[in-house]
Amino acid sequence: MNKKLYSILISCVTVIITSCSDLDVPPLNIIGDEQIFTTDQTVEIYMSRLYNDLPMWMLNGRGNALGARNTNNYTGETTGKGITELEKDLNPWWQYDFIRNVNYFLEVFPTYQSNFGNAQEKINAYMGEAYFIRAFYYFAMVKRYGGVPIVDRILKYPEMSEEELTKPRSSEEACYDFILNDLNEAIRLLPTESTARYGLSLGRVNRYIAYGMKARVALYAASIAKYGNASQYAGTQWANILGVPANRAQGYYQAAYLAADSTKYGGYELMDEGADKAANFANVFSYDADKTSKETMFARRWLTTHNINYAGNFAPYQVSTAYSSDAQPYLEAVENFEDIDGNPITINTGTDENPIYYESPLDAFANAEPRMKGSIILPMSQYVGQEIEIRKGIIVSGHTPSDALGNPEWFLTSGTIPLSDVNKYNDMYVQGKSGIGVGNGCYTGFLVRKWLDPTRTPNDWDGTGVLTPWIEMRYAEMLLIKAETAVELATYGINTYVQEGVNCVNQLRERAGSNKRFTTATLTIDKVRKERRMEFYYEDQTYWDFRRWRTAHLEQTGGYRHVIWPIYVWDTQKYYLKRTEDLRRNYPAYDQLWYYNPIPQDALNRNKLIIPNPNI
């Protein structure tokens, strides 16, 4: 199919699936159902639209890295360069137009099955994909808003009455059950392998991806049942709409464990290749590894003509010809990792009056777990064959931190033209080639390593050359769902799965390069949660974990976060790592009302039966 025809059909499908008109004579420029649901090619176009609308985090690339709606900026995993304050309505997603599109497919496509002859497996696969996608859409809304109106068929105007067209919010419990039922249908209908249609199989769902999604949804529902305190809404207008009864937690945990365990039959496994554990972990997220890695379960991939260049925007300044350093980890995120023996990482910096000196900033992280080094670029670490120079400045000869800091003549920090000779001191760039203070340089002392592809060249990072996929689901998540549900079920007296949960965590720690292992006696829920934070750093998981555990208000108590300034002291020929606050922004304390997003005002205006969430 040529590109021109493909574009025309996409436009026509868009018109059809977003129109509410019911005209006796269809316009000549619109393709009808009998054309759309006739061939694989036209059905694929419709299906690609449904996939395209899946609400994955990295939808608009650089905008999410910079924006106040980046979940990682809430958790302190990173700070975006352009953020001035965090938004309380984080990532709103109320998309019944998308749900109508998938409902239309589920309702209309079966009436055209005769066009596909005896190809029942193909028909089932299409239907299974649609059920999966609808579940994905609804889960995106329910985890934000609690109970929402359940619409599982096409609403037709003006044929239907106002009572039929306007629906109240269902209970949060009913919504999770509806989503899980859709996923059960997807599991029943989908093939065991992602079907290669249109020459492509990457990025399409299969039965085991549906199992993985079921595990994710059931775990979220279980957490809300156990930690959401639904009883607080008793006697209010939000009774049932918000929260899940506590007596449902055990059943949801059990369903999550069994679904996650089923994914092992899909041929997935952890990527663990080579002796360099840090490089191996980083390679899990690279473009080339993703094409062959058995760890990736479900990912959004890009065509060369329609890529999304978030990787290029995260690259260190010195290796990119375009934007850079848009996402920068805070010190708190670095210290959330562990050393190779499982102990907390704490950077020993000393004080201005009594500084601790390092030959290289890397020496302060010498014993860090390799997984951290595969997730975060440390000052002076190697990347694409270069030492990534991150400095705050140089203390000139004859002075020390105690007398030089704050004096611009003794503490050089000029970096307006970072790679110009005018910003050198004795042939050393004052702030380094990617340093603290330059326009597109680093501020916190650290950069994100995840999602960067070391096979790319600087010319690739001009906004068009990086194809790194967004991995929405990987096998490591299944292992940690099994571990978390095993430990949670033990609190209900079900110890059947604890040993397997321990095995799952220890597999990840082995791959991470950690020497510490757990036993059934030492693995606790807090240990599993810590493992999730380390494993899923900067993967849009931590924020939603904080919400379902109801710990965000404990983790995010407000105030300033911290950075590290590597300062080169000339007379010692060593570095002083100054720990200091990021005074550019004071983060708000997390209000417990934020556990549910506000219902969009336009939705409230259109449907008077919808009860708004508590005011935030």
From TrEMBL:
Residues 95-219 form the SusD-like N-terminal domain. Pfam families: SusD-like_3, SusD_RagB. It is found in: Cell outer membrane. Residues 304-614 form the RagB/SusD domain. SUPFAM superfamilies: TPR-like. The keyword Transmembrane helix does not apply. Gene3D superfamilies: 1.25.40.390. GO terms for cellular component: cell outer membrane. Coiled coil: none annotated. Keywords: Cell outer membrane, Membrane, Signal. This is RagB/SusD family nutrient uptake outer membrane protein. It comes from termite gut metagenome.
